[in-house]
What we know:
CATH class of the domain at 113-339: Alpha Beta
Structural class: alpha/beta
Oligomer: single chain
Amino acid sequence: MRSTTLATCRTLSGATSAGSTDLTAGGVDTAATCGGTLTGRPDDVADGAGVPADGEGDGDPLDVLGVPGQINLDYAATAPCARAAADAVARLLPWYGSVHRGAGALSRRSTLAYERARQDVGDFLGVRADDHVVFTRNTTDSLNLLARALPPGTRVVTFDGEHHANLLPWAAGAVRLPVPDSPGGAVRALDTALRQLRRDAGGTTPILVAVTGASNVTGEIWPVAELATVAHHHGARLALDAAQLAPHAEVDLGALDVDYVAISGHKLYAPFGIGVLAGRADWLDAAPPYLAGGGATLAVGDGPHHDVRWADGPARHEAGTPNLFGAVALGAVCAALARADRAALHAREQTLLARLRDGLADLADVVELRTFAADAPRVGIVSFVVAGRDSTEVATALAEGWQIGVRDGLFCAHPLARRLLGEAAARAGRDDLPPTAVRASIGLGTTPQHVDRLLTALATLTGAR
C-alpha cells in the first residue's frame, strides 16, 4: 500500500525524487509537499465538537465523543465517533473538493487525503501487495459487491450463525451449514462440507467460504485462521465478515491467510457511512463494475452501445463521487488504532467484559445467550434475556429510567438468535423467556461505572435489589 500513496503524492504535489523518498520515511513536512498536514492532531479544531465519553480529556485520538449523562452500551450497532475521526474530518472540511476530478489545490488535497486513507486502512488490515482496498458504504455493501464479483458458477458456503449481511447476498444454492457448538465443530463441519462439495462440483469450480470473525449476537470469536486453512486445502477462498472483530482485535489478511475481508466504519468509531472490501484483485478486476458511472471508466465510446473500457483496481467499483469524509475518518481511526497498544486495549476490554458477564450471572432472572462454551474467547458483546420481561420493555426502561442505551430484538441474525433463545430456555430450565433478547456491547469509551450502572438497573428491574 505504501507505494500507491507515494506515487499519488508525487503526482499531486510535484515532489522531487528526494522529497518522495523522505515522504516514505516520514521525514517530509506534508504541508509543504502535499498542500497541508493531513496527519496528527490539529491545533485549530473548533471547540464543542463533542465530549469524550470517558471524561479523560480531548488529547487522545481514541477518546470517543458522547453526550454527558448518557451511557452508550450499543457499540455493536454503531460505535461512537472517535476523536481521531472527528479531527480528521474537521481538518479537511475547508479543503473539501472533488476526488480524482480536478487540478485545483482543493481537489488535489482531497484526492491525496482519499488515497492516504486507503493506504491507512490497507495497512491496518494487513493487505498483501496485490490486494485491492475498495471503499463501500458498509459491510453489507461490501459483501454484496463481492457476491456480484464472483466468477460464474461459484458455490458459496456459509453458516446459519451469520449476520444477515453474510446470509442474504449469496445466490440461491448457497450451502448453509448448521450453527456449530464449538470452534472445533465449525472447522470439522466446513471440512466435511467442502470435501463433499468438491467431489460433487469438480476440481475447477470456484468456491467461496463466507464466515464471521466475531458474532454480533454473542461476541464469540470464530476460528478464522483454521477455517481459512481448511478452505484453501479444498481449493476454496475465504471471505471474512470482520464488522464485529476489527474494532476489538487485530485483523491481518496475511497472518490469517484470508482472501477477502469486509468492515464497516460505523462499527469502527468512524460513523460516516463508509465500509471496505479488501482482498484478492483477480475476481474484482474480472467482474463488471458494481456501479456503472463516472470514475469507473477509462474511456466511453460514441456508438449506440457506448463501448466502455472499464478501469481496473478499486476505481472499477467506486463509480461516482466518493465518500471522502467517510474514508478520511476511517483511515484516521485505523491509523490511530495501529499506533495504539492493542494488547492493552484488549486486556482492558476483557476485564470490563468479565465484570459484565459475572454480574449478569449473579442475577437469577437473567440468562445469557451463547453458541460455544461459556469460557470461549469473545469480544465485548453480550446478549441476554430477562425471564418474564419483554426485551423491548427492558431496553426502554433502561433508556428512560437509567439513560443507558442497549439494543433489543434479534439483531439482524434471526436464525441464530432464535436458536440461541431456544437453547437458553432449555439450559435454564425456564418457559418464561421472551422471544427476543437484549444486547449490551462495550468499547473504547466504556468504564467500570457504566457496567455497574447497567447491572444495578437490571437488578432493580428484576427485583433483585
